[in-house]
Specification:
alpha+beta; Bit1; six-stranded mixed sheet; globular; disordered N terminus; peptidyl-tRNA hydrolase; PTH2; peptidyl-tRNA hydrolase activity; hydrolase; EC 3.1.1.29
């Protein structure tokens, strides 16, 4: 990112040196859809949510560091049992000022997935520990 002389990046240097190694992006997909939709359609929902979260928070130093990790990026895909659980998680994240994006499939207007921007695991794991890995 190129900034004019005298301008600071919007987040300065908030990421601690070496913090990239502990960054993870969490994606939470509705399990009911994962089992009833074609596999490709379900995977696409997670991709959409992850990209939307990374794009929305692209200037955050943790997101930049995560994206610079290339093949070392760590993404964890969890399962919310249904839309109600996904909506409740989104509300909890909002109340705790955790940056995330809910992906809503159109034209159906169905919330299918959410993704957090990349975070150090210890900052967000407490809000996600009741969700299991998607299988």
């Amino acid at each position: 990112m190129h900034l004019p002389a005298g301008c600071a990046a919007p987040y300065g240097s908030m990421a601690a040196p070496g913090a990239a190694a502990g960054l993870v992006q969490y994606v939470v997909l509705r399990g009911d859809l994962a089992r009833s939709w074609p596999l490709g359609a379900a995977v696409a929902q997670g991709c959409h949510a992850a990209l939307a979260a990374a794009h929305e928070h692209r200037q955050h130093p943790d997101t930049r560091a995560y994206l610079e990790m290339g093949g070392a990026m760590r993404t964890v895909v969890l399962e919310a049992p249904d839309e109600a659980a996904l909506t409740a998680l989104a509300e909890t994240l909002k109340q705790n000022s955790i940056d995330h994006q809910v992906w809503t499939e159109q034209p159906e207007n169905v919330a299918t997935c959410l993704a957090l921007r990349p975070y150090p695991k210890d900052q967000v794991h407490q809000h996600l520990k009741k969700f299991k890995l998607l299988k």
